[in-house]
Amino acid sequence: MFSRHGLMLALIILLTAVSIWVAMPGDRWDINGFRADHPARQGLDLQGGLQVLLEARPPAGVKVDKDTLSGTRDTIERRVNALGVAEPLVQTRGNNLIVVELPGIDDPDAAIAVLQQTALLEIIDTNGQPLPEGTLVRTTLGDPSSTNATPEAAGATPVPVETPPPDAPVFQTIISGSDLSNAYPTSDGQTGQLVVGFELSGDARGKFYDYTSTHIGQPMSIVIDKRVISSPQINAAISGQGVITGVPANQVKDLALQLKSGALSVPLEVVSSETVGPSLGQDSIDKSLIAGAIGLASVALFMVLYYRIPGVLSVIALLIYTAITFALYKLIPITLTLPGIAGFILSIGMAVDANVLIFARLKEELRTGKTVAQAIEAGFDHAWPSIRDSNISTMITCIILYWFGQFTGATIITGFALTLFIGVAVSLFSAITVTRTFLRLLVDAGFVRSSWWLGLGRDEAAFLAQQRAMGAD
After folding, report:
1. In this structure, how many other beta carbons lie within 10 angstroms of the beta carbon of residue 206?
2. CA 313 to chain centre
3. pLDDT in tens, the chain (473 residues)
4. CB-hemisphere CA count at 13 Å for 331?
5. Cα separation, 1 vs 426, whole angstroms
6. Backbone φ/ψ region at 155: left (φ over 0), alpha (ψ -120 to 50), beta
7. Where does residue 259 rank: exposed (0-12), middle (13-18), buried (19+ CB within 10 A)?
8. What is the pairing mode between strands 335-336 and 41-42?
9. Which pairs count as long-range contacts for 236-241, CB under 8 Å and 24+ apart, including other chains?
C-alpha cells in the first residue's frame, strides 16, 4: 500500500516541480528558451492598449453578410499581425461589426487608420513564376514608387501595412478588387473538386480574357494588401466568370471570403474606441494580486482552524493547484484579463468547496465508528458524486458562456469562462488526488491517530476512541 501511495506522491511532486518551473517569472533556470517562448500573456485591461469597434458601411445597394464580414475580419487580422502587436483579438459581432483589441499599442491613431483602410485585392502577372504564399510584392497598382503606376492608384488605394524591399521587382496588375462582382465556393463540374468561383464586371471581362487566353498553363498570383495569398494555374481562358482550381479543399471557403471582401472594399467606420493606459493596467494587476492573496489567506486560515490536519493538507493542495493552473495558462496559452483572474479566484473557492464536502463527510464517517483509515476512504468515496456533479454542471455553464462570448464578441465573458473551466478541472485533481494521497500517507505513517486531528472536538474524539477500544475488546 505504501509503495503505491509513495509512487503517487512522487508523481505529484514531479508535476508540482515542473509547474512551478513553468510558472516562474523571468529567465532564471530557463532551458533552451522554453519559458521565454511561453510567457504570461496579459490582456488589454492589464497591460493597456486600444479597443476599437468598427462598423461596415458599404455603398448603397451593396449588402454585407456574415461571410463578407468574415473575409474583412481576416484582412484586418493580417494587418494587425503586421503591426507586431502581441496577442491581438479580432472578432465579428453580428452582421456588420468587428471588434479589435490591440494590447500594448503605442500609436492608437496610426493603428485606427490602418484598420479603416479597405482591402486592396489584385490578381497579378508573375511572369510565369509561382510566388510562395505570404510573399510581399510591388505592383503597378497602388505603388507610387513604380514608373508604371496607373492613374487610379494615385490617392485611391490604401497603403499596405508592410512594404516589400525597394529593389523588389514590380509585377503587372491584371485586375483589382473593384473588377470583381462576386466570389464563392463551388465544385468543378467534371471532377467534383471544390474550387473558388468568381465573377467579373465591366471592362475587366475583356481584359482578363485577353490575358488568360495567352497565358494558359502559367501561374498567376492573388494578392491582398501586397501579400500573396494564392498562386493558382491558368487552365483555360476566362472572361465573365471563372474558377480557381488547385486550392486545398479546407482553404476554398477562406479564399472565397478573402476575394469577396477585397471585391466589395467595404468601408469601415469607427463606432467607438477606448484607450487603456498601462498605468491603469498595472494598478489592476496589483489590486488583483492583493485581493487574491487576502482571499487565499482567509480560506487557508479557516480550513486549518476548522479541519486541522486535513485543512493544512488542503492548503498545500491549493498551492499545488495554483502552480499547475498558472502553468497551464502559459502553456495553452491563455490571455489573462481581469475577468479571467476573477474566474481563477472563483475556481480556488470551488476547489476549497470540494475539500469541505470531503472533510464534512469524513467526520460523519468517524462518528459511525469507523477507524481513521476507513473514514478517509469512505469520506472521499461518498463525497465524490456530489463533487463530480456540481463541477460538471459548472463546466457545462462555462462552455455555454464561452460560446456566447465568442458569438457576441464579448471577450470579458470568454476570458472568465475559459479560466474558470480550467480552474475547475484542475481543482478536481487537487481535491480528489492530491489531498487524498497526503492523508493516506500520514495515516499509513502513523501521524494521525486521534479523530481530533481530523476536525472532531476533544470530547467527541475521546468518546469515539473509547468506543472503538471497547469494540476491539
Report:
1. 12
2. 33
3. 446 778 889 999 999 999 999 998 877 888 888 888 888 888 777 787 888 888 888 766 667 777 778 878 877 887 777 676 766 788 888 778 888 888 878 778 878 877 776 667 789 999 888 898 888 888 887 543 333 333 333 333 444 456 677 778 899 999 888 788 888 889 877 778 888 888 888 888 999 999 999 999 999 998 877 888 888 888 888 888 888 877 788 888 877 776 766 555 577 888 888 887 766 567 777 887 787 788 778 888 888 888 888 889 888 998 999 899 999 999 988 888 878 888 888 888 778 888 888 888 888 888 887 888 888 889 899 999 999 999 999 999 999 998 887 776 666 788 888 889 999 999 888 888 898 898 888 888 877 767 777 777 666 666 666 666 655 54
4. 14
5. 26
6. left
7. buried
8. parallel
9. 236/212, 237/209, 237/212, 237/213, 238/208, 238/209, 238/212, 239/200, 239/205, 239/206, 239/208, 239/209, 240/199, 240/200, 240/205, 241/197, 241/198, 241/199, 241/200
Q: What are the cell numbers at 411?
A: 471577450
Nearest 5 degrees, angle CA 268-CA 75-CA 419?
95
Residue type for position 378: A
Q: Which of 17, 452, 32, 76 is nearest to 267 (CA)?
A: 76
Task: Report the distance separating Cα 132 and Cα 413, nearest Å.
Answer: 39
- The span from the CA of 454 to the CA of 375, in Å, is 10
Q: Confirm if 95 and 73 have CB atoms less than 8 A apart.
A: no
Phi, psi at 224, each rounded to 5°: -125, 125
Torsion angle (degrees, nearest 10) of CA 412, 414, 420, 424: 170
* Beta bridge mates, 173: 124
> Is residue 358 a contact partner of residue 383, using CB atoms and an 8 Å limit?
yes
